[in-house]
Amino acid sequence: MKSFNFKSASSTKEAKKLATKHATFLAGGMTLLPAIKLRLAAYSDLINLKKIKSLSGIKVSRKTLKIGATTTHAEVAASNEVGKSIPSLAFLAEGIGDPQVRNRGTIGGSIANNDPAADYPAACLALNATIHTGKRKITADKFFKGMFETDLKKGELIEAIEFEIPEKSAYAKFPNPASRYALVGVYVAKLKKEMRVAVTGVESFVFRCKKLEKALADNFSSSAVDNVTISSNGFNADIHASAEYRAHIIKVMTKKAISSC
């Protein structure tokens, strides 16, 4: 591991001032620190965000659920507000990694990293989320750009994620037995104006499955999934699952999610 300067910010304003071209923000560090240890990433400065109280917390309004960027997975999973407004999101958070990861990892860090098999990006897409930074609001449809790539600019800090409260929703994941990352994860959400189905673990980054959305918009039932053909072209293939198997599991997880709504 290369040496770096560790700095702590007490406010978002201070964090932005500390940000430089070769610096990065540190929240839970569940992905960042392993990447640095493996020499996959190197920074001159790590800017600790955990002391910024305004970046943590959960607020519910009539239409949306807003979660601060440094709120941990464990806090999301245990929150009464999340459990009442979007129980599927609490269920998703409870299934991330292990207790150590859930108590350190943060929702903002997860979506900023945009791992191809992460859970929260699927929630963001399915629940029509808006990512709040200090400079702007970014819709989830425009936020996730590619493998480990987002629409964030250098030094731009995620402050909160705001989810639309759905009429019905559920998340179903076929996890890697060791890492608990999704080999295939499907988040189904029936919103007031549209149907959304987000898939993670299958391509280079999370995506919406328009075929399933159309089928479920016409008939919100497990039987509607049977008539949908999922092509495996462009899907991930590795020692854990072939592209064809992932295509099959998408339908299986979609049915499981529907049955949980």
Blueprint (SSEs and pairs):
Elements: E1 5-8, H1 12-18, E2 23-26, H2 32-37, E3 45-48, E4 58-60, E5 64-68, H3 73-78, H4 80-85, H5 87-94, H6 99-104, H7 107-113, H8 120-126, E6 130-133, E7 137-139, H9 140-143, E8 144-146, E9 149-150, E10 158-164, E11 168-175, E12 182-190, E13 195-200, E14 207-208, H10 210-218, H11 222-226, H12 243-260
Parallel strand pairs: 1-3, 2-3
Antiparallel strand pairs: 4-5, 5-10, 6-7, 6-10, 8-9, 11-12, 12-13, 13-14
Give me some keywords for this one:
261 residues, alpha+beta, Uridine Diphospho-n-acetylenolpyruvylglucosamine Reductase, domain 2, Enolase-like, domain 1, 5-stranded antiparallel β-sheet, 4-stranded antiparallel β-sheet, 14 strands, 34% helix
Task: Tell me what you see in this structure.
- There is one protein chain.
- The chain has 261 residues and is of the alpha+beta class.
- Among the domains are: 1-47, Uridine Diphospho-n-acetylenolpyruvylglucosamine Reductase, domain 2, CATH 3.30.43; 168-260, Enolase-like, domain 1 (2-Layer Sandwich).
- It is built from 12 helices and 14 strands.
- The protein has helices at 12-18, 32-37, 73-78, 80-85, 87-94, 99-104, 107-113, 120-126, 140-143, 210-218, 222-226, 243-260, and strands at residues 5-8, 23-26, 45-48, 58-60, 64-68, 130-133, 137-139, 144-146, 149-150, 158-164, 168-175, 182-190, 195-200, 207-208.
- A 5-stranded antiparallel β-sheet has the order 4-5-10-6-7.
- It is globular, with a radius of gyration of 18 Å.
- The N and C termini lie far apart (46 Å).
- 41% of the residues are buried.
- The model has no long low-confidence stretch (mean pLDDT 95).
